[in-house]
Specification:
Blueprint (H helix, E strand, L loop, with lengths): L1 H24 L7 H9 L3 E10 L4 E10 L4 E6 L5 E7 L4 E4 L5 E3 L2 H8 L5 H7 L11 E2 L7 E6 L2 E11 L2 E11 L2 E11 L1
Antiparallel strand pairs: 1-2, 1-11, 2-3, 3-4, 4-5, 5-6, 7-8, 8-9, 9-10, 10-11
Length: 194
C-alpha cells in the first residue's frame, strides 16, 4: 500500500511539473498586430504601482497613481504613507507640475529635466507601460532572455517588459524597466483599472 501511494505521489508530481513546463513554454500573445490595436483602442485607464529611478549619483522610490485619457496623462507621486510628493500632468504640448504645497506651474521639458536631473521619456511612457512601442517612432527588437520578457529599443531607451497578466481581455506588463545612459527607471504595476 505504501508503495502504491508513493507511486501515485511521484506520478502526480511528474504531471504537475510537465504542466508547469508547458505553460512556461508558451510565447506571450503580445506581438500580434491585433493585440497592439486592442491595447491602443483603450482610451482611458488607470494604474496603481511603484516607481523607482536610479542613476550614478542617487536613487529614489515612490508610489504612483497614473490616470490616462485621450487628452492628458496625470501622475501622482506619493510616499509609502500616502503623502503626495508631486503631481505631473502632461499632454503632447503642455507639462504642469504641482508641488507638495499644491502650487501648480507650467514647465518646459528643459525645466523638468533640470528639476529631475534627467529627461523622462514622457511621449513614450503611455505606450511602454501598456506593453507596446510608441507607433510614431522606429523600434528595434532586442533579444529577450526568455519567452516571458519582451525587450526592444526605442529613441535610445532600452525597454524590458515582464510579468505579464491578463486584464480586461488584454495582456499587460506588471513590470517595466527602462535604461538609457546610466539611468534606470523601473515601474511595477500593482493594479490596472481599465
Amino acid at each position: 500500500m505504501k508503495r502504491y501511494l508513493l507511486c501515485v505521489v511521484l506520478v502526480t508530481q511528474l504531471f504537475a511539473c510537465a504542466s508547469v513546463d508547458s505553460l512556461k513554454q508558451k510565447a506571450l500573445p503580445i506581438a500580434s498586430h491585433s493585440h497592439v490595436e486592442s491595447i491602443l483602442a483603450v482610451k482611458q485607464w488607470r494604474l496603481l504601482g511603484r516607481l523607482s529611478v536610479r542613476n550614478t549619483k542617487e536613487s529614489w522610490l515612490t508610489k504612483l497613481e497614473w490616470r490616462h485619457n485621450e487628452l492628458i496623462d496625470g501622475l501622482i507621486l506619493s510616499t509609502s504613507l500616502g503623502g503626495v510628493v508631486a503631481k505631473l500632468e502632461y499632454s503632447d504640448s503642455v507639462i504642469a507640475l504641482s508641488n507638495i504645497e499644491g502650487e501648480t506651474r507650467l514647465v518646459s521639458e528643459q525645466e523638468l529635466r533640470e528639476l529631475l536631473g534627467y529627461s523622462p521619456p514622457l511621449s513614450h511612457l503611455k505606450f511602454w507601460v501598456r506593453g507596446v512601442a510608441n507607433p510614431r517612432f522606429t523600434v528595434q527588437a532586442m533579444p529577450s532572455p526568455s519567452l516571458h520578457v519582451k525587450a526592444f529599443e526605442q529613441d535610445g531607451w532600452q525597454v524590458s517588459l515582464s510579468k505579464f497578466h491578463r486584464e480586461g481581455g488584454l495582456v499587460l506588463p506588471s513590470k517595466v524597466s527602462l535604461e538609457k545612459e546610466g539611468l534606470k527607471i523601473k515601474l511595477v504595476v500593482d493594479q490596472w483599472l481599465m
